[in-house]
Model the fold of this input.
Amino acid sequence: MSDDGRDLKTQLAAAQKTISVLMEHVEHAIDTAGSLHNLFEHNLQLEKAITEHIRNERELEQFNRSLEELVAQRTLELKDANNQLNQRNANLKELVRRDGLTGLFNHSAMIDILSQRVAEAQRYQLGLSVIMFDIDFFKKVIEVNKLDMRSL
Done:
């Protein structure tokens, strides 16, 4: 074979080797591009997830604020209702202790009051006097004379 043929063969071998190396670089570039594409897609999914998370967090914060406002409002309403109930209970206790016709303390209330006064007199070593009236047929006296005991 001639020198020209050998040179061509050598040049052809060198060209094939260069093509082979270039093909490896191309394949590597394609793999890298695929990896970059996958990484880009993954980053896009992460960005969407983070955006969704931030939106959900804001909604949750708004819901918590609304819930706290509702709890505060209900607490005020409950305190108000409780105050009204306490006032009504105090009124009922007073009604239970008084006679409906005369407005005077009833027997049970008088026993409680006398017990307190006796204990005070004993504690402070004071004298104690009690005056009691018993009017027979008191209801009839009121009816006959058409008296309004609350105005007396």
Notes: The longest helix spans residues 3-97.
